[in-house]
Amino acid sequence: MSADLLAESERLLNGEVTTDERHPLFIRGGTRLEELGDGLAFVESFANVTALVDGGRMLLVDAGGILHFRQVHEQLRAWSGAPLDTAVYTHGHVDHVWAVPLFEDEGAPVRVVAHENLPARFDRYDLTNGYNGTINQRQFQLPQPMFPSGFRYPDETYHDRLDLTVGGLRVELHHDKGETDDGTWVWVPDRKVLCTGDLFIWAAPNCGNPQKVQRFPFEWAAALRKMAALGAELMLPGHGLPIAGRDRIAGVLADTAELLESLVEQSLALMNAGARLDDLVHTVRVPAHLAGRPWLQPVYDDPEFVVRNLWRLYGGWYDGNPSHLQPARETALAAELAALAGGAAVLADRATSLAAEGDLRLAGHLAEFAALAAPDDAGVLAVRRDVNLARLEAERSLMAQGIYRWAVNESADKIAQLQQQDGDD
User: Fold this and answer.
1) Which of 225, 224, 304 is nearest to 267 (CA)?
2) pLDDT in tens, 162-184
3) Distance, first Cα to last Cα, the chain
4) Which has more pLDDT, 210 or 22?
5) 117-174 pLDDT per residue, tens
6) Closest by Cα among 413, 387, 391, 411 to 402
7) Would the pLDDT of 26 be above 80?
8) Which helix (H) or strand (E) holds 77?
9) CB atoms < 10 A from the CB of 332, how many?
10) Which of 5, 127, 173, 186 has the fewest CB atoms within 10 Å of its CB?
11) Is the dihedral of CA 358, 363, 365, 367 positive or negative?
12) What pLDDT score was predicted for residue 2?
């Protein structure tokens, strides 16, 4: 068994390296394959791929993303020439489902297996291709909207559980909702190997992504509890490093479940007491004893966003503020506030002062109102740019960073356009 990835994993678990330094979703150099046991390969990529070979047949758990699937195929083929028998999609996100056609081009048929909800996800991606392209552009700062189409649909789906045999290898597929409604986790009992998909990603669970569809914290926690009870000796997650050791694995899964359970319990208690969404957002917190865990840091999603997702799940979109039920246009509200304050520049100046005092949330509101009220004022736009830059620099969550960076670039681009117009005049 290779020690490299597992040694890195131990350093993270022990706190010798942080997930800011070793981010689970930033992989240097594309992909890296390591053999983690006889007939077991782990391809570290933006989204990881696991390959098991038994009886001259290969099983894949996930199939690589649109950016790295060719490297995944090349590295697996350098490792083993066994024909691909079965590929399991742990869910339908596009960073997990792309390499199968390359194996099929070799001439042998491949069986693709996934949960029964996955085909509907692919259908929805085609319906919302432009929207998803915009999300990707904003989240990852791409030069233009980008989202793929032409998915390889599964040949076989299942409802709750499906047992497979590949070569002589027994494999259990289990469905649970979590980040998606089509989630599958994979248990190989004879090898004590657990493939979690994105139910574990070396970060606070990606359960509140502000630009994505509904996610399921309560069911996610239940899935983690099931996996923690298995006695797995090697865990291969959808993102981030493998983890070895029964106690280690059970511990990180149980901690992640506890975090989600606490967010659910706190949120529901406030909702049942008649609180508004605003009360939840500013009250619900990660339990103090979990906040420092290296595998639960908010480097991708943010627990605050999970709270909003819980409100959407259990309470709909009305947030308890009657002015938000049938609101005025944002530009009209901004213009009224600017008039009351004495002009958009007054709002912008106050935003600058608040940011200097460290109140970036309130500064963000005022800077946005000022820019909506005076969209062609370069000075106001510069304040919006600078406030969002301060928010970007203070933020750990990749989700929030992408949105704040987008706002910075929006304002900077508009300022450049205004300066060009002035030059042309």
Assistant:
1) 304
2) 999 999 999 999 999 999 999 99
3) 69
4) 210
5) 999 999 999 999 999 999 999 988 888 999 999 999 999 999 999 999 999 999 999 9
6) 391
7) no
8) helix 69-79
9) 12
10) 127
11) negative
12) 46
CA quadruple 200, 238, 294, 181: dihedral sign:
negative
Q: Count CA atoms closer than 13 A to 328's CA, side-chain side.
A: 8
Residue 416 to residues 382, 389, 423: CA-CA distances in angstroms? 11, 17, 10
Longest CA–CA separation in the chain, Å: 77
φ, ψ dihedrals at 122, nearest 5°: -60, -40
What is the DSSP-derived secondary structure letter of residue 23? -
The CA-based dihedral angle spanning residues 173, 177, 180, 185, taken in that order and rounded to the nearest 10 degrees: -20
Q: Which amino acid is at 222?
A: A
Residues contacting 264, CB < 8 A, separation 6+: 217, 218, 221, 310
Rounded Cα distance, 242 and 52, in Å: 15
Rama region for 214: left / alpha / beta (φ>0; ψ in -120 to 50; rest): beta
Provide the sign of the torsion angle of the four alpha carbons 258, 15, 46, 79, taken in this order. negative
The amino acid that residue 9 corresponds to is: S
pLDDT tens for each residue of 249-278: 999 999 999 999 999 999 999 999 999 999
Q: What are phi and psi of 304, to 5 degrees?
A: -60, -35
Q: Which domains are seen in the chain, by residue range?
A: 4-262 (3.60.15.30), 328-424 (1.25.40.880)
Nearest residue to 231 (alpha-carbon basis) of 189, 177, 196, 264: 189
Write the Ramachandran bin of 374: left for phi over 0, alpha for psi from -120 to 50, otherwise beta.
beta
Print burial letters for 339-370: b (CB count within 10 Å at least 16), e (below 16): eebebbbebbbbbbebbeeeebeebbebbbbb
How many residues are recorded in the chain?
425
* DSSP track, 300-356: SS-HHHHHHHHHHHHH-S--S-GGGTSPPPHHHHHHHHHHHHTSHHHHHHHHHHHHH
Distance of CA 374 to the CA centre of its chain: 35
Cα–Cα distance between 17 and 22 in angstroms, integer?
A: 7
Cα dihedral 359, 404, 393, 389 sign: negative
